[in-house]
Protein 1
Amino acid sequence: MTRMVTVNLKINGKQYSEEAEPRLLLVHFIRDALKLKGTHIGCDTGHCGACTILWDGKPVKSCQILAVQAEGANIMTVEGLEPEDGKLSIEQESFRENFAQQCGYCTPGFLMMTRYLIRNNEEMTREEIREKLHGNYCMCTGYQQIVDAVQDAQRKYFATKK
Amino acid sequence: MYPKSFEYLRAKSVDQALQYLKDNEGSRVIAGGQSLLPMLKSRLYQPTVLVDINFIPELREVKLGSNGDLRIGAMVTHYDVIENSTIRENAPILSSTAENIADVQIRNRGTIGGSICEADPSADYLPTLMALDARVVLKTTESSREVKVEDFIQGPFETLAEDGEMLVEVIVPPSKANYRVEKYARRKADFAIASVAAIVSLSKDGKVVDARIATGAQQDKPHRLREIESALKGKASKSVNLEAIIGPATEELEPLDDLHGGPEYRKHVLRGMLSRMLGDLLSGKEA
Amino acid sequence: MTSQKSSTESLVLQSEKGTKQNVGKRVPRIEDLRIVKGKAGYTDDIEMADQHYAAFLFSPYAHARIKSIDVSKALELPGVSLVITGKDIKELTKPMSSRAATKSPTSHYILAVDKVRYMGEPVAAVVARSKYVAADAAELIEVEYEPLKVVASIEDAMKKDAPLIYPELDTNEMISDHFDFGDVKKAFSEADKIVKERIRIHRYASTPLETFVVNAYYDPTREELTIYASDQQPGRTVQSVERTIGIPSSRIHLIVPPVGGGFGYKLAIWQYVALASLMSKMVGKPVKWVQTRTESLYAFHRPRGYMDAEFALRKDGKVLGMKLVDWQADANWPYVAALYSLIKFANMSGTYEIRNYSFEYHCVATNDPPIVQDRGVGKPFMAFALERMMDFSADALGIDRVKIRQVNSVPAEKMPYTAGSGEVYESGNYPEAIRRALEHSQFQKKLEEQAKFRKEGRYVGIGIATGIEPGTSNLGYYFLSKAGDPDYNGAGQMATVEVAADGVVKVNMNGPEIGTGHVTTIAQVVADVFGITPEEVNVDAWYDSIHGHLTYAGTYSNAFNDVYLGAVLTASNQLKDKILNIASSLLKEDREELYLANNYICKLENDKEKRLVGLKEIARISYGRLLSFPKGEEPGLKVTAGYINRTAKPFVRSDFNVQLTHSNSVHVCFVEVFPENWNIKILDYAIVHDAGKVINPGIVDGLAIGSTVSGIGGALYEEFVFDEQGTNLSLTFGDYLKPTAMESPEIRVDQMESPAPNTVLGTKAVGEGGAITSLAAVAGAVEDALKPFNVKITGLPITPEKIWNMVKDTPEYKKINKEGQ
């Protein structure tokens, strides 16, 4: 047996300290050790983006990182999106209103991208949104309603800033 | 997919990392991990010890050397290569290259040092770094040496790095000359079917002062197209017959052959790219 | 059972009495409230106590004899509790058998026995305490193979001395048949022109983002098998598990949490459900298996094959007759052999009036991996072949590609139309659909743009294709080849509706939720029946076999809008009847004056709604206050009802409906091909889609767009590539190219509504149309763009490299490359 390593990290504002085998993937750590099941696995090779999380505010693919590498990291998963008042966040609301999900398996990854993109870009065109989302696969929607949702979310976000 | 077991050593400094590498036979560095993780997961690669260099702040630095050279730490991410103003000013072609790499998420985690050590024949950075005459700094506990990127890359997934040696820095001579860098792939995140990095300086009277051109995905490693370079140098840009140069100069290439593109097609695409990109550069069009 | 007519009437009745009608509205999806919070709850999210994990070892060879398997090292690994191989399987299970083929192999088990027939066939299985250890153990199993000669193509398989995939059959051709409709001979003798072409289809697949996941636990204290699985056809899985591993179906409890994408792929999971179940029984632990992406790309695709098509044409474009010979490499998994051919024969004339045709098919076993009923099954190829032939016919006659489609469309006044095969097209207006598509796509403007671009040296093209999108499978085509009374049919389903003790209306559709909006669609319909809002209806997104189901329960074959809604409505109406009867007795009010609205039993007094008693109160009495409960009724408010679409015909070769509803669409695609690298960009994409009555436009638009992009993937990007040793080279999403948001076009959808007369709400098939119609529209557009090069596209995917190979020796190519210098 290999040596276990203690990983201390913050997820969705909460501090965790858990043992992990060095080979354990961050996505398995999040799902299996911390029981946060909203982050999904879709491809194993870093193509599909279903496992996208925010790491210090920037999106990364949690199946491409070892859990032990997340020491000291500040992470947000889809479970962290929801405001405390129980309402939906801007991103969640826009995805729902625009029918941006069918089976929903890819949705958490797209939502994390949206959280990042709408806050870190000037108003994006549809083409720009498509370009920035190409690391996330959706097998159901054909992406159009997802692009609608991201555009809508950015408009809503900008409206809160006015 | 689940990696096989390995020991994990977290280095806090370059010296500690080098010591770990020296003390552990079969150890290997993990940088951003964006290429390494899929290989660990498919078990194509089974190291016994991984030395993590993500916790070494000095490897994330970007500096200008006293001679004006850009010094980019091995752990500088693709995102930083795009955004860092020192890199953008001194080697804008490098920032443009990074924009073509994979996707937003991978650019946030993947690093320039890791990408170079991967030595993929279709990798994005290599043609650009070759065109820039960039060097890498390789260190062991005892020694430090500088090697040209062109020499460092030996073949597919093969470099000059020896056991216990680690790439710590990339040195890029500044280049503000006009450039083009492009890759052609079916989808943006895919490895190139053909890629070209070209830097061309023209004198005021339209003569080619300097031309440095490299290509990827055309052979077992990216390389400079020196025949084209020398055919251009010193010529009046208006009088160049590109087709007459590109055809023969690319004749001997033996491009990769896989399901994304056969050798003849890759060569065809390369020629089209060279013709258009060099045509633009010779006419002085800014990027 | 309540008749279809009264179901529909009661819906109308409710909306007349002042409650808001929900059917037809763009109601935001209820299931999305969980999905956007990351709380959809897929199968892999469920863990059982003392959870164990399975891993499989898959064959690296496409065809090989298994000489020996050494499992000792795997068994020695700490944490490993079981390793099984074909030896155990041969003892403990029954082989798979075919459903359609008359000759059924007897040597294909759920784990390879003695030999492997495709790369990726499971050879051994492991159970361990963690998924990482299970993977370690699988790697330690040592198998000695003796490679056999690989049968890499249909042509190879049909050679005299070809190695046999199933030696017990003495042939690689599992089944073939020939159908004749009308007078084909006469049609060809009267033809002004005959056009002949071989059209090919490649291997591709839908690849849902969630892979196969199964979690099985055999509880010895109850002697019951509990299974969680991402399964699209649980009714059938229960039967298959019973048949293969011998646990009686009455002792199998199968639960399907929301499925992360189905697309037909999840119909093939039963083999692994059986394996996980068997292993759980052997180790006494819950066994979970989560398929990796590479494992999911090994097998269960669409088959490759070709069709030799011959069209007899009249000068004006009228297709007098067709001769079609279909070859499919779809027999290397006996379970669904012949399906890809058989599903085509009845709908082969598409939206056209072509009375005379022959259809012959050959189902061949090769070392290609197994197939599954992927989105639309054989119909994307059916439409591709038919529509390409329409284009070639138009070109051969020198008439317009739109015109030939107009000439041959079934005229509106002939609806309902019975095709030569017996397939009944229940409603629709195909000429009008074309007219609307020309308008919606701004076809005339596109032609003008194209002319302008061509002058500028740009290669721009327009493609048009029509398509039939059948729904609800009569399934009985299996029995056209196998005599006997079939044990299953897809023309019916069951559903459960209740008013729970707390007064909440609750529904279980007794079929899996695969992402196509069933929860909300059902909520809209049931809300209208009970006069409440969709949000108030608690629709369970989980399938649970304890609710009861028909043998072939599942979400497949575009049947939801027909048979599941039929069952939901039937149960809802029965329950509503019961509630009103109870209320009438309790209140001593005339039953006919009572109705349900806003959770109350109401009646009209002086044209004003009077609330008499709450639904909650009726529930309280029905479940608990039994002394007050009226005589003559049964306590409890729960109804499980079945529904059959009665237009399904019995199985007669000459008069047969493969499917029962028929949506149709017209796609217009506008592309540009770039001569530097021959890459293709879709500039515009317009769809007219007629799926009958639309219950939720947001959902239906999404399915039309999404299915179209899946077809575009098949047309331009996706292919499983094999070398001559049958090695699958496309085992990651880096090598099997799915379209991303960048490759997917903006798609404009125009919904037409021709209600189906044979479904309860007039609804029809929705989820497959784009996958069926898009292939030919894209191919036609690319071919049109390349018109100056005079190329013909008869196969897919159309890659830039293939285009370059087609054009590089043409005069136009030489011309532009000379000019380029």
Protein 2
Amino acid sequence: MFKTADLAYTYDGSFEGMLCCVFESYTWKETPLAIHSDTAEVGLLLESKWIETDPAKAERVLSSIPKRISPQAEELVRLGFYSNTPDKELLLLQFLQLGFAHGRKVMNMLADDTVNALNKAVQLVRREGHHYLGFLRFSVYGPVMAAVIEPQHYILPVIQDHFCDRFHGESFMIYDKTHRAALIHEPGREAIVTLEEWTPPEPDEDEEHYRRLWSSFYDAIGIKQRRNDRLRSSLMPKKYWKHLPEMKEGTSAKTGRLTPGKAVAKLEGGED
Amino acid sequence: MNLMEKLEILTESAKYDVACTSSGSSRSGQPGGMGNTVSMGICHSFASDGRCISLLKVLMTNGCVYDCAYCVNRKSNPTRRAAFTPQEIADITMQFYRRNYIEGLFLSSGIMRNPDYTTEQLIAALELLRNDYKFGGYIHVKAIPGADDALLSRLGLLADRMSVNIELPSQGSLEKLAPDKSKQSILQPMGLIKERINENRYDVVKYNHAPRFAPAGQSTQMIVGATPDTDQRIITLTEGLYKKYGLKRVFFSAYTPVVEHSLLPALDTKPPLLREHRLYQADWLLRFYGFQASELLDEKAPNFNPLLDPKCSWAVNHREQFPVEINRAPYEMLLRVPGIGVRSAQRIVKARRAGSLDFQALKKLGVVLKRAQFFITCRGRMLEGLKVGEHTLLRSLMSGPELAQFQGPQVEQLSLFDDAELSPLPAAAALPAAALETAITAEGAAFDV
């Protein structure tokens, strides 16, 4: 087993950079106490070692994962890297150490703390990715469409294939406000690029028209006798509401769970 | 009447149809078109009642020549009527789909003139979408009972899923409440769809580009709580539909009173949501857990217990099959343990290949130990310190917080169930209280180590 080194690795925050940290760990047979990306707040208590990103080293680590562990392990590592779990890099390093030691068997070791933690992190990424397949809304601006999302995890690569296949004839952009990145697609071409800032233009009349139609469909489809705000919030958490036209204030049935105080005010006000 | 009003009216009239799933079909985008389908289905929003919105669910028209007592669109109900043109439907679907509001279209209709004419209208709308707009998204369409076979066959080639509503769980109930429909008229198109789906399987193998007939299969729904039919009747019928007609899904709809009628529950009756929930749980047991309807309910106990979910009920009544050893029990048996679901059972099977499992490990795999602890051993031992008295067992198995969702959804629920005592055990519980007592006493004896 590797000795624990009393230092932190610092890298450039890229996937290749993270793989180079793994390479470094194997070179010195050491496990650092922490791995930080240079964009993150770095704790000052540890001596830190800068790990240069070297594509050749990254490739050696990456290609050995499917060979010596399994192709599923590679997917797990990629998705784990998209997660916003604190210390994900260290978790990935520990997982790979286990994997290179045990081979494909590591994928079955679900009760192991490291494997369990990585699987949970990946599950969150997958879940958020799946949610955004549904909860993402495009606005149409003439010939192009654009959507803004604010995911906790870096899910653009997770949803990329789905949207590029579904709208393969369209020109569109999905802007990830949290990670300042955008998926840009036009027929035959697609890419994820960094984009510091983007504000959607004002919707035109056509766009407003369909948003209103959609909102009134949304209001009409709910069965009043079965109203269940708690169930709705658990299936469609409020963090998604901000970018959903049907959940915008000003339309009926949008108020979330009523606090007792508000409920009274509501009754007295005679609304609803 | 403008488009907005039409949409409101025709959505209002369609909302009692339960199915909104977009699953079971997998098709990638076609050149020149827009849209694909994803086999697991995608929810795009959730309505104020917590139901998934996946499809644009509308009626072509809410005008109807039939007079079914339970239906809001029946001929004799004085309500506002509207109708979409095929062009309007195609346009709204495309515009909504493009904005990622929906996964596709769920199209149904009241009966205009006669079943054949109505089906022709549905075909016109779907042909416009599929052929002119090259729409590749999901389409669920209602087969109209009584329509010509040839028309239904054309309809099925345009849709991903078809459904015929069985409406009520027995012939007697149908006769009373839906005098224009009969069991025969409903089962006939269901049989036809099944046949066409089967034939199509061969065609697809033989000819490379044979069009697919309803690739996501067919589903149905029935209303629960409008008639005196028992849960046993409903769940047995459900099982029969899965087996005989190869249905993909059977949906249940808690009856929401929408019209005053002497044969129906009063207008202020609350929809039996908990009963609906129990039926769905049982439906899951049939489809994914290897249970038979006859194991869940019988003549003596023809209805589900409101306080225990069907699986717990079954386990409590089959103590002789437990405890099971986690490290050796076959997958099928793991599935029968309360607190272990399909996913955790799969994880157990996978994880025990890498090493034997203890209770700590089970927690990590997502097993709900609170329930499972009474029914399992790890390496031959029960959970240490487990005491099983009558009260603890029931309290652990009772669906506490989960029940809260079905009780007065409007008001903020206080945690009534945090310390649930046995007092709320209703006398009317499906499992007779006495039987439950016996089961628990027997259990107490078994576990007093």
